[in-house]
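In the previous chapter we treated chains in isolation. Here, by contrast, the input contains two separate entities that must be folded as one system, with a combined length of 485 residues.
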Amino acid sequence: MKALLKKDFYVLWNSMKALLLLIVIFSLIPSGFQNVFAVLYAAMLPYSALAYDERSHWDQMAAAMPYSTRDIIRSKYVLGWITSAGAFLFSTMIQLVVRSYLKMPTPVSLLFVSMCISWAIIAITLPFMFRWGVEKARLTMVLIIALVCGAAGALTSIATMSVAIGGDKIPCPLIVGAPVAAIVINLISMPLSEKWYERRK
Amino acid sequence: MNAIEFNHVNKSFGSFAIEDLNLTVPTGTICGLVGENGAGKSTSIKLLLNALRPDSGTIQVLGMDTCDPAYVAVKNDIGVVLDDAWLPETITAKQVGSIMADTYINWDSALYESYLTRFSLPRDKKFKDFSRGMRMKLSIAVALSHDPKLLVLDEATAGLDPIVRDEVVELFNEFTREETHSILISSHILSDLEKLCDYIAFIHEGRLLFCEEKDRLLEEYAIFVGTTEQADSLLPEAIVHREGNGLGGVRAMVRRSQVPATLTLEKPTMEDIILNLVKGAKRS
């Protein structure tokens, strides 16, 4: 799996510097919505990696190499977890610096829940990509964009309303429930992706 | 032990099907897979790599069933060159080496570097800027740099200039000097197969028509060039395929044993044999 992750990181780094820069820019802006979007946007990187794989017919090469179906599938999940977690950590650290200077509270819990939602989005949509391929699963891409934008809007609204009624930025049940839900959905999603990918043979 | 065994393999795609494929490649030999475009050569190779699952039948590679989960580990001993090097466009040869070092247990970085030098491949140029010949050379370098016991080559010499092609064919020949090394090669360049192969397997419309020793094929068939009357006097079963020779006479591929010794016959090339067999198969 290390080789597959390395390949994806090379591809993303070599071909998507502009998009990675977007995550950096969104992380720099002291706005809850922009920071949440940066973390959620990172969930889309596995789809970019999959699209590059498809364009270069990498699956044919991978089939000739000692990679199991499990490794091929899980590497894309792990890539999504790493990029989302990386965006969360990066955004949080930047905001700690920027907001301490501006004397504003840092939305750590908001960004943490965003990361969990990123993981859930990956788990909901990846099986469709593995079943039909990125090219054919265009409708799923629309679903991903809707989920990313919808989740970013919903989370910032929850944060704003929660503060307005005198509570914390993000309600406690959401902070506890989001990671549990993300883990459960991923545990269901991975075997499904493996099954659907095998069907393509 | 055989390097490759297809046993009654069937795979259907609706309009096209591999039917009852039985093919054996003994260890230490080179088998050439020939046939027209769409005959089933690449499908057979995908089946043996487990990129496709057979509908029925079994395939064993280096003693392991391809449907066995443990087959993944056996792929450490298989070097594969497909009809194009399907590597991500934006990575470099240096990055390919780094990825493969984490892919293959027996990856030899020094050997890979030596192939890059030998093939004059740039280390830091993006793969999308490689010519087809360079792409194939990179793919061959990867296939040979992890001490494989079996090479599976699907049009591996296509796109190479004659000098490099000759060098690559020599590399493959060197590879089989080890008794435990075997090659399955599909190619349209029949002169390469003539130089390399011990066996020739001929696939036509998804069916294996024969798998014979190359020398036996060269002994069995001959080229007859003569008059129409002489050709008409031959037994119908002696003629594989006949056509006009452009000078009012006939040029035919015949079965040497069924032609009277009084007729003069020419020695065929593998290209003559395969082309005439394809044309003969189409006619029948």
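The radius of gyration of chain A is 18 Å. The CA atoms of residues 128 and 139 of chain A lie 10 Å apart. Compare these points with the single-chain example from earlier in the chapter.
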